[in-house]
């Protein structure tokens, strides 16, 4: 999915898939803002998984690149993922969320 999103008009089929992914995710986000929609959007789930993978130092550069690419297309989903990572009750989970955000901030300077 990430390869399709970051592709640069390599293949007409990829371009069509890219358009469908972006349109579907944005439509789901719009509906979600109107009323809560059941189920998970695969785009948001992908961002959540990438965010959790920041715990693995050996993959930071690649994960950051993927997160930045996704957040360029879906900034609101990215914002929701980061905010929800801080809305945990466990001190251990809050510390992990702070570490992830610190890594992201340091490596992207954003």
For the largest beta-sheet, the strand count, sense and barrel status come to:
none
Number of helices: 6
Q: Give the helix/strand class.
A: mainly alpha
Q: How would you state the average pLDDT, rounded?
A: 80
The amount of helix comes to over 70%
Q: In angstroms, what separates the terminal alpha carbons?
A: 24 Å
Secondary-structure element order, N to C = HHHHHH
* Cα gyration radius (Å): 15 Å
| Amount of beta strand | under 5%
Features:
single chain, 110 residues, mainly alpha, 6 helices, 75% helix, 0% strand, globular
Descriptive report:
The protein is an all-alpha fold and 110 residues long. The chain has one domain (2-108). The chain is built from 6 helices and no strands. The protein has helices at 2-6, 12-34, 42-52, 60-73, 75-86, 91-108. α3 (42-52) runs antiparallel to α4 (60-73), α3 (42-52) crosses α5 (75-86) and α4 (60-73) crosses α5. The longest helix has 23 residues, at 12-34. The protein is globular and about 45 Å long. The relative contact order is 0.12.
């Amino acid at each position: 999915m990430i390869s399709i999103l970051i592709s640069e008009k390599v293949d007409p089929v990829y371009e069509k898939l890219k358009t469908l992914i972006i349109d579907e995710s944005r439509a789901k986000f719009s509906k979600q803002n109107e009323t809560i929609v059941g189920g998970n959007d695969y785009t948001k789930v992908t961002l959540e998984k990438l965010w959790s993978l920041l715990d693995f130092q050996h993959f930071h550069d690649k994960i950051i690149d993927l997160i930045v690419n996704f957040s360029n297309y879906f900034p609101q989903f990215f914002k929701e993922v980061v905010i929800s990572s801080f809305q945990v009750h466990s001190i251990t989970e809050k510390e992990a969320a702070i570490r992830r955000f610190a890594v992201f901030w340091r490596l992207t300077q954003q």
